[in-house]
Amino acid sequence: MKILSRYLIAEVVRTSLFVLAALLGLFLFFDLIGELGSLGKGGYSFGKLLAYVMLLAPGHAYELMPIAVLIGSLFALSMLNQNSELTVMRVGGMSVQRMLGILSIAGVGFAAFTLLAGEYIAPRAERMATQLRLAAKGQLVTQDFRSGFWMKDDGSFVNVREVLPDQTLHNINFYQFDVKRRLSLQGRAERGVWQPKDGAWLLSNITATHFENGAVKVEKLDQFVWHSVLTPDTLAVLLIAPEQMSVVTLMEYIDHLKRNQQQTRRYEIALWTKLVYPLACLAMLVIALPFSQTQRRAGGIGIKLFVGIMLGLGFYFVNKLVGHMGLLYDWPPLLAASLPSTLFLALATYLLWRQGRR
């Protein structure tokens, strides 16, 4: 039985990774075509374009893994069924529950890979890709408004006019208010560089204007160490979408938004999606099993492969749609994140139950 288990897992893993490689190649090709219009702008050479596209691969692998597992496992199990190998396994005493248990081992492995890619590899690669592209084209990271990027830092409001791709801050303005909400300090720094050892920003060329007791006092400093809730990880929000951020970064940013009484719904949905999404690999394996044990005639494999592709695309688009609907209609974050996987798992359970009654 151990030999059969290893054989079954090996077939599913092999075909799923092959499908993942094929899907990755397709998505990266589309990315390459989409970037050709920016070729030659600034220092954006073809080599940097290729590096940018390749850095997008981990993010695509994270998103495509459940789809690849569904198509790959469906194809592998269908081939085994076509060659009567599944029938021999069943006759030899392997129940459907036992087969699901074996497939779940592969599912846990795929889920672990998805979690690893989404938590550690994809966010860093996505950030590096965006930094590479912006630096090559000589652009800024972002400007939420014409006046730059705004944030609340405890009792102060901070405006950063420019954030460079290396996360250096330029033209930083501070506005501090007293308990009566009157402006007590207005400061400006030309440049800010993150100091990892101190966990703070080193500001240079600072001009501070104090408003106290009806008097105005101007103070100039060459350097100042600024301890702030704004960190390079927080700035990562400007570089990548919430859905591509790590769980730790999302939790820290949600906490920052809550402390400053700002909206957190989009980031909470992204957080729960990151936690639930790897489990979709298990649901895909469960749904592949009942489909693979029907239609043993020669034309059946092509039909099953088509069904697998349609289901995979359906899961991809439903997952995106439910996320946007959850944000639009203010659904609970856990519901918006888990609904697609729950629906597909319910479909798989129904198909297994229906097949067992035959």
Fold and architecture overview:
By secondary structure, the protein is an alpha+beta fold. The chain has helices at residues 2-35, 46-55, 57-82, 85-91, 96-137, 232-239, 247-259, 265-276, 280-292, 300-328, 333-357; strands at 149-153, 156-163, 169-177, 183-195, 200-212, 215-226. β1 (149-153) and β2 (156-163) form a beta hairpin. The longest helix has 42 residues, at 96-137. The chain folds into two domains: 2-138 and 266-357, no CATH class; 155-228, no CATH class. The chain has a six-stranded antiparallel β-sheet, with no helix packed on it. The chain has eleven helices and six strands.
Structural topology:
Blueprint: H1 2-35, H2 46-55, H3 57-82, H4 85-91, H5 96-137, E1 149-153, E2 156-163, E3 169-177, E4 183-195, E5 200-212, E6 215-226, H6 232-239, H7 247-259, H8 265-276, H9 280-292, H10 300-328, H11 333-357
Antiparallel strand pairs: 1-2, 2-3, 3-4, 4-5, 5-6
Short recap of the structure:
The protein has helices at residues 2-35, 46-55, 57-82, 85-91, 96-137, 232-239, 247-259, 265-276, 280-292, 300-328, 333-357; strands spanning 149-153, 156-163, 169-177, 183-195, 200-212, 215-226.
C-alpha-based Rg, rounded: 26 Å
Q: Main β-sheet, in a few words?
A: 6 strands, antiparallel
How many distinct beta strands?
6
Spatial strand arrangement across the major sheet: 1-2-3-4-5-6
Helix content: 55-70%
Number of domains: 2
Provide mean pLDDT, rounded: 83
The low-confidence parts are none
Write the element-wise H/E pattern from the N-terminal end onward: HHHHHEEEEEEHHHHHH
What is the straight-line distance between the termini? 26 Å
Fraction of residues in β-strands: 15-25%
Principal-axes shape call: elongated
Treating each run of at least 4 consecutive H or I residues as one helix, how many helices?
Answer: 11
Structural class: alpha+beta
